[in-house]
Specification:
The chain is of the alpha+beta class. Helices cover about 60% and strands about 10% of the residues. It has helices at about 1-20, 30-40, 50-55, 65-75, 85-100, 115-125, 140-150, 160-165, 170-175, 175-185, 195-210, 295-310, 315-390; strands spanning about 25, 65, 215-220, 230-235, 240-245, 250-255, 265, 275-280, 285-290. The strands form 2 sheets. A 7-stranded antiparallel β-sheet has the order 6-5-4-3-9-8-7, with helices on one face. A two-stranded antiparallel ribbon has the order 1-2. The relative contact order is 0.06.
Length: about 400
């Protein structure tokens, strides 16, 4: 279900980009082309008969999103097999389709190369809410921009950030991906940065969040047969630790399968290698050496996190973190709502108390006025009696 939801986000952009008139409907000829390309990208055997049969009625009119969904679910998404296709290919196809009609940097200013914009689009989709149209809440916008700034070793400008997320439209309904890309293309986030540095930072965040890479980098590894040491590029994911000849990851030299039976331990210095640690599985022990103690601590912590995710049956660290942030926002919202309700109750009690006090004061004033009136009447009566006595 998680993979289906992720694919639907990208496909939704492709569908809506074909809806030129913004009517919620797309022509059948365009949907046939879209479906054909999805078959190819998802590595599903083409079924032209089913495609033609589904769209063969006499009505040549357009098909709505709701009308296309049954076909999309039955003939495409139900046939998807995880691991048999590259999701990035699906994302690239959908991005190419929607970017042509929606991604137009303002004033002709295009700070981002297309690949960077594509990676940001994927990051946006990953972090966006599961409701349509897809938007990013202000807290997630700030989270993503901070991640990119940390990767660039710069601080996120609070002024620029607040100016952006304080816009009324953002506060009310969230931010769209096109508004997000427009903001990044203003250059306010990357002010003074070399383009290559920006590209490297965006790619690093993309690999971490979308690529599901918890940590990667060079480590020295001790061989099992020759017992010699070789420098390898390691890439850690929730269930695996792959190691390659270099960071281009073209030649994989091996894979350590992680499970609840694995553990990571710090080792003392030996054979001229410092900052050592090992990963123990049921069958092998893999010895490694980090560049320094800080890196060793980061690696051992990251591997422990990957093992924990395996134990908990979770496939992605950042999906887990996203869920936690959402739960925290919902909890804050509940507390805020409860506090507002409490304040409203207190204000109501205060108003009732003040109303009763006002009523009491008014009553007291009325009583006092009646007493004064009665005293005046009594005095007038006495005066009349004295006048009568005088006349007698």
């Amino acid at each position: 279900m998680e993979l289906r939801a992720e694919l639907l986000k990208s496909i939704w952009y492709a569908f809506t980009s074909l809806d030129v008139e913004k009517s919620g409907k797309v022509s059948k000829s365009q949907l046939k082309v879209l479906s054909h390309n999805l078959y190819t990208a998802l590595n599903i055997p083409h079924d032209p008969v089913a495609l033609e049969d589904h769209f063969s009625d006499d009505d040549d009119g357009p098909v709505s999103n709701q009308g296309y969904m049954p076909y999309l679910n039955k003939f495409i998404l139900d046939k998807v097999v995880e691991g048999t296709f590259a999701k990035e290919n699906v994302d690239e196809f959908c991005w190419t389709l929607c970017a042509k009609k929606n991604y137009r940097p303002k004033n002709g200013v295009d700070v981002l190369p297309d690949k960077d914009a594509f990676h940001l689009w994927c990051l946006f989709n990953f972090l966006s809410e599961d409701n349509y149209p897809l938007v990013l809440v202000p807290e997630e916008v700030e989270y993503l921009l901070k991640k990119i700034c940390i990767a660039m070793s710069v601080e996120l400008s609070c002024v620029d950030m607040e100016d952006f997320i304080s816009q009324e439209a953002v506060q009310q309904s969230g931010i769209t991906v096109w508004a997000f890309l427009d903001f990044v293309n203003t250059g306010r986030l990357t002010r003074g940065m070399v383009k290559d540095s920006v590209t490297m930072a965006i790619d690093e965040v993309y690999q971490e969040i979308v690529g599901n890479i918890i940590k990667q980098g060079y480590l020295w590894k001790k061989g099992h047969l020759r017992r010699n040491w070789n420098e390898r590029w390691f890439s850690l994911q929730p269930s695996t630790l792959h190691y390659y000849v270099s960071e281009d990851r073209k030649e994989c030299k091996g894979c350590i399968e992680l499970s609840h039976n694995c553990c990571v331990e710090v080792l003392p210095e030996k054979e001229g290698k410092r900052c050592m640690f090992c990963v123990k599985t049921l069958t092998k022990t893999y010895e490694m050496s980090a560049p320094d103690t800080k890196q060793r601590q980061e690696w051992t912590t990251a591997i422990q996190t990957a093992i924990r995710l395996c134990v908990e049956g979770k496939k992605s660290l950042h999906k887990d973190l996203k869920l936690r942030r959402r739960e925290q926002r919902e909890e804050r919202e509940r507390r805020h709502t409860a506090k507002e309700e409490e304040l409203q109750s207190l204000r109501l009690l205060q108003w009732e108390r003040e109303s009763k006090l006002a009523e009491l004061e008014l009553l007291q004033v009325c009583v006092a006025e009646r007493e004064i009136q009665r005293d005046r009447e009594t005095e007038r009566e006495r005066d009349r009696q004295r006048e009568r006595l005088t006349l007698i």
